[in-house]
Amino acid sequence: MSSKFTEGVVAESKRSYIHKLASEGTRIDGRDFDEVRPIKIKTGFIQRADGSALVELGDTKVLVGVKIEPGEPFPDTPDMGIMTTNVELVPLASPTFEPGPPSEEAIELARVVDRGIRESHTIDMEKLVIEEGEKVWVVFIDMHVLDYHGNLFDACGIAALAALNNATVPAERFGFGDDFKLPIMHYPVPVTFAKIGEWIVADPNLDEESIASARLTVTTNEEEKVNAMQKGLFGTFTYEEVKKSINRSMSIGKQVRKIILGDENGKEN
Amino acid sequence: MSSKFTEGVVAESKRSYIHKLASEGTRIDGRDFDEVRPIKIKTGFIQRADGSALVELGDTKVLVGVKIEPGEPFPDTPDMGIMTTNVELVPLASPTFEPGPPSEEAIELARVVDRGIRESHTIDMEKLVIEEGEKVWVVFIDMHVLDYHGNLFDACGIAALAALNNATVPAERFGFGDDFKLPIMHYPVPVTFAKIGEWIVADPNLDEESIASARLTVTTNEEEKVNAMQKGLFGTFTYEEVKKSINRSMSIGKQVRKIILGDENGKEN
Amino acid sequence: MSSKFTEGVVAESKRSYIHKLASEGTRIDGRDFDEVRPIKIKTGFIQRADGSALVELGDTKVLVGVKIEPGEPFPDTPDMGIMTTNVELVPLASPTFEPGPPSEEAIELARVVDRGIRESHTIDMEKLVIEEGEKVWVVFIDMHVLDYHGNLFDACGIAALAALNNATVPAERFGFGDDFKLPIMHYPVPVTFAKIGEWIVADPNLDEESIASARLTVTTNEEEKVNAMQKGLFGTFTYEEVKKSINRSMSIGKQVRKIILGDENGKEN
Amino acid sequence: MMGMKSDIRLIDDNGLRIDGRLPNQLRPIKMEVGVVKRADGSAYIEWGGNKIIAAVYGPREAYPKHVQESDRAIVRARYNMAAFSVDERKRPGPDRRSVELSKVISEALTSAIFVEKFPRTAIDVYIEVLQADAGTRVAGITVASLALADAGIPMRDLIVGCAAGKVDDVVVLDLNKEEDNFGQADVPMAILPRTGEIALLQMDGDLTYDELTNAMEMAMDAAKKIYNMEIETLKAKYGGDVNEQ
Amino acid sequence: MMGMKSDIRLIDDNGLRIDGRLPNQLRPIKMEVGVVKRADGSAYIEWGGNKIIAAVYGPREAYPKHVQESDRAIVRARYNMAAFSVDERKRPGPDRRSVELSKVISEALTSAIFVEKFPRTAIDVYIEVLQADAGTRVAGITVASLALADAGIPMRDLIVGCAAGKVDDVVVLDLNKEEDNFGQADVPMAILPRTGEIALLQMDGDLTYDELTNAMEMAMDAAKKIYNMEIETLKAKYGGDVNEQ
Amino acid sequence: MMGMKSDIRLIDDNGLRIDGRLPNQLRPIKMEVGVVKRADGSAYIEWGGNKIIAAVYGPREAYPKHVQESDRAIVRARYNMAAFSVDERKRPGPDRRSVELSKVISEALTSAIFVEKFPRTAIDVYIEVLQADAGTRVAGITVASLALADAGIPMRDLIVGCAAGKVDDVVVLDLNKEEDNFGQADVPMAILPRTGEIALLQMDGDLTYDELTNAMEMAMDAAKKIYNMEIETLKAKYGGDVNEQ
């Protein structure tokens, strides 16, 4: 193990190096500021789940499984299905993840992905009612991080969307008629930015994350609506930076959305 | 932060000083042995609760909120409502309180307040039945300590009683007829004593608590019945000391009860 | 407290001594390799339980209480009762046991005893149905270790079997007809072996356990069927050693079974 | 819980109680020391239907370190009920009641022990209620005191627990389970008999001053009898000079 | 939760909101500092129906040791709701929402504090929501900023929270409870007013780019008013040079 | 759970199993190493419908300190099932079953590792069951062994898991999910193939001595085949001298 002291020195020299690259318009892995790492999506990887997607965003790897089971609706929304999201930062995926109950990082991540899906009305919840006020479909979105190399917000958001888009409501198994495709109404895509010195780059990798002063995730849908934002870390953004990031998110999100849908369509046909 | 060593020295000299004062018949804040600190009560402070009271006992500040919701009765008391008490020693209130599950101090405190109310039949539980064996009113008494300067037993007991006396059963909100005042049958008041050397003082403040060898809380009601007692700390009491404390509790309790009821009446009229 | 260093030295010399004895065919307490410590069984010790047994295996002491209450069956076995097992390694029983949630040792122990009973069909679960799919008897087997001197697997397994054999289903108390003896179909007995150097001894005591390289528990029933095995610790067994241990378990188990049944019969007649 | 409603008459026309006792009569008590070989000291008590075992470990290094006190031993009693000790199976593990009882028992035991002799250590007292029949805390503190003596922990005095209360408007000693469930008040106490000091005192219910003092006096009188049983139990194991330790 | 369905009209024909406010109007706000004597600094805020108290302890030694940072103080905000603060009684203790809010509030406060002045220490900020009425996180960060100032913690600037959102297709400032429940979007922000830096920014709902920027600008404008209230509140206690600390 | 009742015939008239296998036939197995870049070593296995990934971190400083052993490394395996890995969604987090499996797998792996070479360290082995189809513990220990080799942890031998059992009164190798649910016995084992030592052995069900020894021999024979697959997998990545490491 390197000592804490050594780590500090290494971090400092890495910080200078990344800043210098940024000032020259490039990044430690050679990408442009708005370039996301290569995305690979494998849907249907977990046959035992009702929908699933194994997503690689560069070296970051996330597996999302969707399970759909009958349950009771909430009293104040008797005519709507239920969705829950959970992230497991299992210690397999990084030396910095520890076993035990979800860390605050895992909780924030799950909640940001959750809001991105929920507030965009991604799932048509009204179609998930079995008997109003009595029984509805509950959609469990479980995200299992398998290799952590930066930017879990986007990797999880992409994988969750791909898994939902891949999901079938297993009505037959529970004796509620024919199976049907989980009704998807929107395709919200999160794009995360990291502030490095005065520069802001999209889809930060692990090195960039470790020296970023601030983080901003902007989730937009295919109608160019903004569905969720989340700022993180100890630094701040100017209003101009936020506005630019929203615009960048829309245009990057569009490319990512094509990859998500392309893959799914490819599989379906 | 003072070192543990310094703390020890300070504590020792404070101990001597308080003992010396006691031997002269007085206390560090100038009170008589049977004099409680000034009591201020603000009922109805939390409009969203069904009853509430913000109580100051000297600098000690406690906020009690009462929520009343329908629930299932216990199988062995199908014809009675339910009450539960909870104390939150939130770290806001003292550098010695820590976040996390209730400490043994918080649990003892909640249970002593609970017994004072329950065993005195403060609430007419038989009037809290909606449908026998099926549905009753559940009275949640939540005590939130906001500033800790000694003697939480009395501050919480007073605030709980004031909040209950202020409470309305929200029957209408749940479709069970008209709202009605929570039926109160008795007015039990706890008075806590601290043994300092050979002297016993009422309503100990933080300094006195920190050097007391033993603690005794005696809860009595308006009929001079004793409803609860709780001895604490590592010291002991003689039988004579206990008997005297019971008598002192009755007479001090009477004054405190007037303050509680006066305030409430003041508010009501 | 002895220092960790001293402990190490003591352990080492004890290890040599026990190995030396083993090479001479004997043990630190003079037993033969296949000889279990004296077993004493007192059934019905806890009148408030529906079955109970206080078992001494040498100086190891375990109290098992069985409680039987009505409950809901599992959805996939609507026509069978339910059993659960729990072990409490309370800190009263050993300086090495700590308060708190069950340790992994306690969980393993409970699960091995559970499998020994469950997989042998000790209890006739089909006779524990009150109303199919709605209400069945739930058998709680709670094992309370009272003095720990080695080999809890066998002590708990024996005590659980004796307590079950002593148990009555309290149907009357719950208004479901007449009480009846808990229907027992088999008498599985666990026998645990410890590998000490190249020797394998039955029913290891505390000293033997502390230096054993590997542990094997084999549970067999009165028909010489094997119902459960569990290997533990960091060492390994050869296939020959395992086969021999199974045979030894059958013959030792037969003797132990007589003691369990003898006692119960003694009590019954 | 006190005050459950019931038609049960707890005192009959002859003034006798549901189990035939007089108002000021104790239930049968049996004591034994040295029952847990692994522990530094231990004891067992049967008191009415209560069956309670206690074991002491220590003085030993207190862990984690921040709980250590530089000028005394800490006494950590842990009151625990076995799952099968009560009518309806109890979920294992501490609940709010057992946390409170552990605290007041710890404090009461501390008052009797010369804790200043063992700075930075812990004296752990484990009390396991194997069968409960009302009065477990006072029986528990009594058996814990025996276990402490068996462990050779120096004490100012043995400590004795005893309770009194009120049922059917009569002040009675040592409530049993029915009396506890359907009675009007319970006053558990622990005493250092030589000096009469009160080390534990709780009360719940509804008592006038006179009823309360009657109850306390009844419990303190009975405590002396139980104290003698403690002495005899220790003498039987250790010989004559128990009282002088 | 945003987007619950309802027939409630949140904006009337005159463009007024359910509580009579104009779209860009704040609810009434009252502030006070020095309300928790035991703490190093504290403050209280009433903002609409919100009643929130905050207290600061520190800089003090960070415990456990492994959380210490060698080059700065760590800021640990804990956002907590009282059981009685909401309509249906809330179980005490942290839930996922309060864990997330504690995290983003901690990060936002850190951006304003000169944390590098206090290596190895912790600055603990406790925010207790006594009554909740929508916007608790921005009210909480505002009152926390006052408590930090009251504790004398050196900061680059006071920090101000404010939210805007969309209801009935209208961009509005400072949503109340009904607007929060039945509205279409909420954008909570925290600002360092002197520089206009954004220290906290979240959003959920459904907004076009123009709606979102309108909302953000509305919140940032209002933040300046709240900032002045903060200054006045501190001046009332500490005199004129608050702004210069 | 063994022994659920069912009308399903698990062995057909031709002696074939529900998935067409012969009694002593393994399900298809695929292995891969180096799948988690962040880890010191990792591997992935598909075994029938099982999909399991394992990663190794260490030897690294064992934390908290009191778990360190002065004369060896501690091996901490953590067996965990993903929420979506089974038919009915599993609540995340350890349950009693996974705690037991983690313990026996840790012990078995320890027997193969030269732990005495790395005093005071921990070797952490994380096994994530992504899809479960019976036999996850033996597949898990097999893939863990590959991950250990990939991490360069020195071992006496690779370790191989395999199970056998009884269904419809026939002793069969490598039970699948239906056979596990409705069968009569399961005997999971782990072997060090070079010496034939047994490092993990569990069993539940109802077997005669002959059935049990048949099952064990069947599993041990199959283990040799799986061992060869392990060797091939490592060779494919590291070249020829895997066996000599």
Tally of domains of chain D? 1
Structural class of chain A: alpha+beta
Q: How much beta of chain A, percentage-wise?
A: 25-35%
Please provide the ordered H/E string of secondary-structure elements of chain A: HEEEEHEEHEEEEHEEH
Tell me the Rg of chain A in angstroms: 19 Å
Low-confidence stretches of chain D: none
Average pLDDT confidence of chain D is 94
Total strands of chain A:
12
Under CATH, the topology of chain D can be stated as Ribosomal Protein S5, domain 2
Give me some keywords for this one.
heterohexamer, A: 269 residues, alpha+beta, 6-stranded mixed beta sheet, 4-stranded antiparallel beta sheet, D: 245 residues, Ribosomal Protein S5, domain 2, 5-stranded mixed beta sheet, 4 helices, 9 strands, 28% helix
Structure write-up:
Chain A is of the alpha+beta class. Chain A has helices at 4-23, 104-118, 152-165, 206-211, 239-268, and strands at 39-43, 51-57, 60-71, 82-88, 129-131, 135-147, 168-169, 180-181, 189-196, 199-202, 214-220, 226-232. Chain A contains five helices and twelve strands. In chain A, the strands form three sheets. In chain A, strands 1, 2, 3, 4, 5 and 6 form a six-stranded mixed β-sheet that branches. In chain A, strands 10-9-11-12 form a four-stranded antiparallel β-sheet, sandwiched between helices. In chain A, strands 7-8 form a two-stranded antiparallel sheet. The longest helix of chain A is centred in the C-terminal third of the chain and has 30 residues, at 239-268. The termini of chain A are far apart. In chain D, helix 1 crosses helix 2 (136-150). The mean pLDDT of chain D is 94. Classes of the chains: A alpha+beta (269), D alpha+beta (245).
Q: In summary, what is this structure?
A:
The complex is a heterohexamer, with three copies of chain A (269 residues) and three copies of chain D (245 residues). With 269 residues, chain A is α+β, with helices and mostly antiparallel strands.
